[in-house]
Each structure stands twice: as C-alpha cells, then as structure tokens.
Amino acid sequence: MSIAHMMASGIGGIRTSGDLVARMQFGKKMKTPVAKEYVAKKLGISVLDLTDVYVMRDLREALGIGVTVGLPGAPRGIAAKMNIEKLLDIKINCCENFRKMTSKR
Amino acid sequence: MAEYLTYMGDGKRIWSTREKIIDDLQAGMAEAVEVGNVPDLSSEELAMLCDIVCDRNRIVSVEPGNEIVLSNDGAQNKFTGDSGSSGCGIEISALAAAQVHERAMSMDTFEFGSYDNNYSVKPLKAVIAMQMQKMEDMQNSMIVPFFYGAMPNMGLYYEPDGPFGNPPDMMREGKVEEAQSEMEKAMDMMTRDIEFMGVKMQEAGSDGFNFDTTASAGDGDFLSVLRGVELLKKARPEAQTMVGMSSENVIGIHGMLDYKGHDVAGIYPHDQAKLAEMAGVDVFGPVTNTKSGKSLAWNMAYSVAIIKECEKKSNLPCHVNLGMGVGGIPMLETPPAEAVTRCSKAMVEVAKVDGI
C-alpha cells in the first residue's frame, strides 16, 4: 500500500525532499504548493528539482541533512535534524530536548 | 466495443466499457452530491477520472511536480501486525520498521505506536514511561517527522472495558438520557487522557500526535479529540497534531453535542475540517467509505467529489485516508496496486489533496 502510493504520488521522503516539505506542512500548516515553494527557496533549487533524486542526493549529503544510503561519517538521525533546523529556520522538538539534556548543568 | 480492465469495490477484477465507466462515475458523483451536500464535479474533472480509470497501464502516477506528502497511521504494525490490520506478521522492532519506512520505502513521515496496548489512548497511559523512552531513542535515529500515534477509541471507556455504562446497551433499554450522561463522563476522561498522553510524548521529543480513526465511537469521540487537541496545544504549542477520521460522517450516537456552537453529529469532511481548524489541529485526514458492491469508477467519483470540497473549504492541509476500504480503494486487505495508484492520482490531481 505505502509503496504503491509512493510510486504514484509521493515526494520521495529522504531520497529527495519529502521530509522537508512535510516539516513545513505539519509545523506551519502550509498547504503542499506553499510548503514546496518554501523548501525550494531554502535549498536554492526549483520546485521541480525537489523530487529529482539526481539533484537531491548530492545536495542532501552536502547539507548534512541525511541521505537514504548508509554513509559512514554523514549526519543521520538527530544530527541531520539539527542541520534541518538551520536549513529551514525552524525548531524541532527532539533537538530542543537534546540541547537541554547536553547543556551545562 | 473496447473493454477496460477495472475493479469492483471489493477488489474483484471486471471488464467494463468506457460508456459504463462514465455512467458509474456520474452515479458515484450524484450520490456524493446527495449525501455529502457537495457540488458536482465538472465535465473536465469527470473526463480526467475516466482517463485515469481507463488507462491501459497497470500502474499510473501523477505528473512530475504534482507530488504530495505521505503520512501514515498504524505505525510499525504495517509490518508486525496480523491480518486484522493488514499487517505482515514480521518479527521486527518498532525502530527497524520505522527506519525501513524512512530509508527504503521513501515515506515522508512516520510514527510510533504500541499494539501491545491496543494502539489506544486509555490503555497506553499505564505504560507511558516505556512509550516515552522508546520515543526518545527512536527520535535519536529518525530523520523524517516522527509522531506518536494512537486511536482515541472511546469505546474502551465503557463497560465491560471501562468504568462507564455502555450507551448502546442503555439505549436498547430506553435509557437515552442516562446513556448520554455516561458518554459525557467518558468524554471528559478521554479528553484528559489525550492531553496527558500528548504532553508526555512531547516531553519525550515527539514531533506531535496522530489521532488515528477519530470518531470511531461517534460524536462524543470526535468532540473529545477536538477538546483534547485544544488542551495539548495550550500546554505544548509545538505539538503537531494530525486528526485522521474513521468514517466519512460523524455518527450521532449522543446526538446533541456541539463544538463552539457547531453541531457535531452527521457532519461530512468539509465541515469536520472546519471544526478541526478551530481546535488548533495542524493536518486533517478526511475519509470516505468505499462501497464494496460498486465499481472503482463509482467509488472514485464519490470519494473525489466529497474530498475535493473538503480540501477546497479547509485552510488546513488535508491528508486523505487512502487505505483499505476508504477513499475509493477496494475493501480488501491486499488491494490491487492498479486500483491504489488510480485512486492516488485521482485524489492528487482532481481533488487536489495536500497529502495521503
């Protein structure tokens, strides 16, 4: 079911920019065209490029925001999300928690 | 006369002519207009739906640039569950299931939920600390927006599972006012439980809360979720909430409830979305129910007409439910990918949904 929807209509998750568009949609209540415009502007690419793996694979690695393949040394998990915060100019709840936990007590 | 391979609402393959498909599309739309009080689809939109159904290819898709966000319900149960939830029965951890969805299946968001505790708010209170530590660990490893998911499931608040009298049983005995009173007590408890669960999961780093199959126990269930979201957003404004419905209209089991002056019972997605917006919900998940005795074309037109009006009227992003037996997709635990991709394309390019 999930695979059929991804093939038919999905942006592509971390293969491309689906997680980034979703962050703006859930966090700022942006409808999809608005969220795509926002993310494309932040990435410095066109809206059509958002779903182009040829563009997004290397761009995600360069920005340290997580890639779909195993890549030792590249940020993933919460490290990637901390870079996503800066890229999209948002706060992510678990990153806030992480900073609180690791701040000087 | 040329015939096209298409499907019934139970997933059975049938052959149909273009003329019959057009008739079914028009009949499905007419039903939506009547029961959902929504406008007709235009002739251009019906023609688009006809082309989607009649496409000779097995798999169809949206045009590049039209892609939308995919969200989930059911969490890791898609892998670990049994046939009751169309689960695959695979022994796999919640984290591994989430990472497969993120890194191999290209999902844009995912969620964690507990099926050892009915995936429901009330029993999950008892294991909240375990849920929190799992959420903390999983947030360290996940990249996509990652939510906590559970069903409100107000049925669990009634006897024999809960502390309050069982309204359907009481109504059968003619005790209507007593039944309404028990529902109102259950609503108050569920509202507080939603706030409690939501706040705790935010403390654990969750991006937010997915309320799956909202209103499964009727108007009281829906109203409690709206009130619970209000309280959660007041306590933790960063909590991102998605309210996914269980059915196309809210069943009026209580029948006399309102939310800020708006009737709750019997409302369809375009009115449900308005109430969700008033409560502070971030993403709304409308539903239409597939009729298994009607064709894919009939169900597609029916669903698209209702969901298009919801998307049009809603200021919130709408993620239409497109699982088994909803949104035009056949009522089958292994629905044909041919039908799934057709409904997916129809919802995105005709109903203009923000997500699935």
Task: Write a compact overview of the structure shown.
The complex is a heterodimer of chains A (105) and B (356). Chain A has 105 residues and is mainly α. Helices cover 60% and strands 0% of the residues of chain A.
Explained architecture:
- The complex is a heterodimer of chains A (105) and B (356).
- By secondary structure, chain A is mainly α.
- Chain A has six helices and no strands.
- Chain A has helices at residues 2-9, 18-28, 32-43, 53-63, 78-88, 93-102.
- The longest helix of chain A is centred in the middle third of the chain and has 12 residues, at 32-43.
- Chain B is an alpha/beta fold and 356 residues long.
- In chain B, strand 5 (208-214), helix 9 and strand 6 (240-245) form a beta-alpha-beta unit.
- Classes of the chains: A mainly alpha (105), B alpha/beta (356).
- Chains A and B meet through helix 1, helix 2, helix 5 and helix 6 of A and helix 4, helix 6 and helix 12 of B.
SSE inventory with pairings:
The complex is a heterodimer of chains A (105) and B (356).
Chain A: H1 2-9, H2 18-28, H3 32-43, H4 53-63, H5 78-88, H6 93-102
Helix pairs in contact in A: 2-3
Chain B: E1 3-7, E2 13-17, H1 18-36, H2 43-54, H3 77-80, H4 94-103, E3 110-112, H5 121-124, H6 128-141, E4 146-150, H7 167-172, H8 176-203, E5 208-214, H9 219-235, E6 240-245, E7 258-259, E8 262-263, H10 269-279, E9 283-285, H11 296-313, H12 337-349
Parallel strand pairs in B: 3-4, 4-5, 5-6, 6-9
Antiparallel strand pairs in B: 1-2, 7-8
Broad structural category of chain B: alpha/beta
Question: Which descriptor suits the 3D outline of chain A?
Answer: globular
**Number of helical segments with 4 or more residues of chain B:** 12
The end-to-end distance of chain A, rounded to whole angstroms, is: 47 Å
Structural class of chain A: mainly alpha
